[in-house]
Amino acid sequence: MGTQRGRPANLDAAQAGEVALQQIWAGGYDQFTIDGLCRVLGVRAPSLYHRFGSKAELCKAAVELYNQRNGEQVGAILAVDFEDPIALARAFLTATAATFSADKNRQGCMLLDGVRPSKDPAVRPLVDAEIARTNRQLKGLLRQSGFPHAKAGADYLMAALIGLSGLAKSGVSCAALRKTAMAMTEGLRALGDPAKRASAGVGKSK
Fold this sequence. Notes:
elongated, about 70% helix, mainly alpha, disordered N terminus
């Protein structure tokens, strides 16, 4: 049978966002191409550009989809007023560890490991904005819980988050990642201990 020409396949925008999410998460934004996405969807590039405008806008749609699906559990934790900062750290890190390792085909954080390594100035702000937003939330919660060094604590938890994502991406199991998250929790406890901060030189000027 011959192939019909002149009638491009209809573009399903939701499916395009879904496939873009999967491809960026698996191989990174810089390896993600419009041509590759078109081959999977069975559409032509002009259809995608007409709907999304650019590769960066497709990435933005994928990031929004990722946040909707994968940010619910962590977002619920960040919506709680914790009285104990260590309980906050434990809940936050173990939840992210579980999220990062839940799907063996899509491990780690799509934002941190899929988009953040890119040098494209059109997409890097997406990650920077999300990191800054989460950092502000953590700092506020730590301050509310009475943690004495809210800024340092939030920075520490964000560094731990990035580390957990990298470990998950490298194939570390869910159980091992959870143990690591629990160990990282103790790091926040040490950060809040004045004696341990002093011995580690934290907060001292050079």
